[in-house]
Specification:
By secondary structure, this protein is of the alpha/beta class. About 40% of the residues lie in helices and about 20% in strands. The protein is built from nine helices and twelve strands. Helix 3 runs parallel beside helix 8, helix 7 packs across helix 8 and helix 7 crosses helix 9. The N terminus is likely disordered.
Length: about 250
């Protein structure tokens, strides 16, 4: 019996971390407790905002994602989480419709389970998805460590911004973290609170005004590279009474 338990525990790495995103507190508790007993590090989130705060602190190896969530739903979340260096995704849905399942998989989910699901089946699917990820190994896509937009390049490893002309642009740590938060969530309105969470974590003691000041500095540095009289939409636009939006199309590059 003991050897069987050891073999079972050896099916995944001690570093594997799971993020459970579900608005039902009972499900969050039961699933996190069950996976935790089987050696996984588990965090939980009730909605997209608390999920984003968790992701800003640390990227998990796998996200167990409910489809029916308040605000941004699981399908939209799956669409934006599915990137080369993103976590694996297992979607859960109380809707047993085959179309719903197909949409989730087409959006990039690694697996899909109907709710309610047997915790042991979920455990088996989690292990299988993580095992497939390890067996695939690193690919060229997972080496993508920079973001490009309108000729700019933001290197996420070197913490370096280069203009379309190739010149290095000096950024403070705070400016870099804010720009990274914006380019990793393009064409989406981010409140000041969200920007603070993405850039500095949920326990930041900075005030809203600090975000405004650093956004203003970022704008000046980005606009300085444009030709005089060039008529283009500003890269960081203010949405009154809401926050800011990064307007450019962003691509991941190696």
């Amino acid at each position: 019996m003991e050897s069987a338990q050891m073999a079972e525990a050896g099916q995944h790495s001690e570093s594997d971390r799971i993020l459970i995103v579900d608005d039902d507190p009972e499900i969050r508790h039961l699933v996190s407790e069950f996976l935790g007993r089987h050696g996984f590090g588990v965090e939980t989130a009730a909605d997209a905002r608390s999920m984003d705060a968790s992701l800003a602190r640390r990227t998990p190896d796998l996200v167990v994602l409910d489809v029916m969530l308040p605000g941004e739903d699981g399908l939209d979340i799956c669409r934006r989480l599915r990137r080369p260096n993103g976590p694996a995704i297992i979607m859960l849905s109380a809707m047993g419709d085959a179309t719903d399942r197909i949409v989730g998989l087409e959006l990039g989910a690694d697996d899909y389970l109907p709710k309610p699901c047997n915790p042991r089946e979920l455990l088996a699917r989690v292990r299988a998805v993580l095992r497939r990820r390890r067996e695939m190994g690193p690919s060229d896509e997972t080496m993508e460590a920079a973001c490009a937009f309108e000729g700019w390049r933001l290197d996420l490893v070197r913490h370096e911004l280069r203009s379309p002309a190739g010149a290095a642009v000096n950024l403070t740590t705070g400016e870099f973290q804010l720009l990274r938060a914006l380019v990793e969530h393009p064409r989406r309105v981010l409140t000041r609170d969200q920007l603070l969470e993405f850039a500095r974590g949920p326990h930041s003691d900075a005030f809203d005004r600090a975000v405004d000041v650093q956004i203003s500095r970022l704008r000046r540095k980005l606009e300085a590279s444009r030709s005089p009289g060039e008529d283009r939409e500003e890269l960081i636009r203010t949405i009154r009474n809401e926050g800011y939006i990064f307007t450019a199309k962003v691509t991941r590059v190696a």
